[in-house]
């Protein structure tokens, strides 16, 4: 399944008491769709998934899909470092109406390649939904090697990967050896154009919360053959992409969205809202006045 080229790893709105801010979901989803997002990844890292309970995730999956309808894909973050729990969550998520699931490489327990293959195969077999694998060694310590991912790409429901290894050689090999209908997405905003230049399909973006139209314009220029224009836009947008990570994500994104009146800047510990010094740093690229 093609989820689109510009996907957003959506933040999760919280209220001042730490609960889900259900009222903020609709304006957030509408904002993202209006600014070019073609797919929403719900309860991923940017959605503060480690702090979300299973029932909260399932509510988010269902509610976001209700709001989005057929206008955009909704992909549920179901990956954990527990294969059995990830399988169970996938089975439950499949009943909420979402369009696909995303599963991150198992973190902390450091499985080998065979263990990771088994993990993702189990998730893939848990439903008929398309599966996006998420490889991010910087957070999970382990790297899903190209040969393992290529084998996984041959499973009927494994349709894409969010690649955040930063290794263009590995990514190029995956694109070359995986099926033609297997889509490789950049997991880093700043790697969007480099990865697309070697055959990648698009990006799962954090920056699209604030610069979705600009991200969409880069992709449109590149896919239209206007490489120089795409490169120029990409270089100019890099500082804003990087600004999204001046503090632990998604605190910077939430600060900008709060200023725009879309949601509050509340996060769940151990992620904290921006302090005054960080806010001043962010004001170099985004108005927080």
Automatic annotation (TrEMBL):
Q: Name one GO cellular component term.
A: cytosol
Tagged with keyword Hydrolase: no
* Single annotated GO MF: 4-hydroxy-tetrahydrodipicolinate synthase activity
- According to its UniProt entry, this protein's organism is Alteribacillus persepolensis
Keywords, in A-Z order: Amino-acid biosynthesis, Cytoplasm, Diaminopimelate biosynthesis, Lyase, Lysine biosynthesis, Schiff base
Swiss-Prot/TrEMBL site (Part of a proton relay during catalysis) positions = 45, 108
**Where does the record say this protein resides?**
Cytoplasm
According to the UniProt entry, what is the EC number of this protein?
A: 4.3.3.7
Protein known as = 4-hydroxy-tetrahydrodipicolinate synthase
The similarity comment for this entry is: Belongs to the DapA family.
- Gene this protein is translated from: dapA
């Amino acid at each position: 399944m093609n989820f689109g080229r510009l996907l957003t790893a959506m933040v999760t709105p919280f209220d001042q008491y730490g609960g889900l801010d259900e009222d903020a979901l609709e304006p957030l989803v509408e904002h993202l769709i209006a600014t070019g997002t073609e797919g929403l990844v719900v309860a991923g890292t940017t959605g503060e998934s480690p702090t979300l309970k299973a029932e909260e995730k399932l509510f988010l999956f269902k509610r976001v899909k209700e709001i989005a309808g057929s206008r955009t894909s909704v992909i549920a973050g179901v990956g954990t470092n527990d294969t059995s729990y990830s399988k169970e969550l996938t089975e439950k998520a499949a009943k909420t109406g979402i369009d696909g699931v995303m599963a991150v490489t198992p973190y902390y327990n450091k499985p080998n390649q065979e263990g990771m293959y088994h993990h993702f195969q189990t998730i893939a077999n848990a439903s008929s939904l398309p599966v996006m694998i998420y490889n991010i060694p910087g957070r999970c310590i382990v790297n899903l090697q190209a040969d393992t991912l290529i084998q996984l790409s041959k499973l009927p429901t494994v349709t894409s990967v969010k690649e955040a290894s930063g290794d263009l050689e590995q990514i190029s090999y995956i694109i070359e050896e995986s099926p033609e209908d297997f889509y490789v997405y950049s997991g880093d905003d700043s790697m969007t154009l480099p990865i697309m230049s070697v055959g990648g399909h698009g990006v799962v973006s954090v920056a699209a919360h604030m610069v979705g139209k600009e991200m969409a314009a880069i992709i449109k220029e590149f896919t239209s053959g206007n490489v120089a224009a795409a490169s120029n836009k990409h270089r100019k947008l890099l500082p804003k992409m990087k600004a999204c990570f001046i503090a632990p994500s998604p605190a910077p994104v939430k600060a900008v969205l709060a200023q725009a009146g879309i949601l509050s800047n509340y996060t769940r510990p151990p992620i904290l809202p921006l302090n005054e010094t960080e806010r001043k740093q962010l004001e170099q690229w985004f108005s927080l006045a």
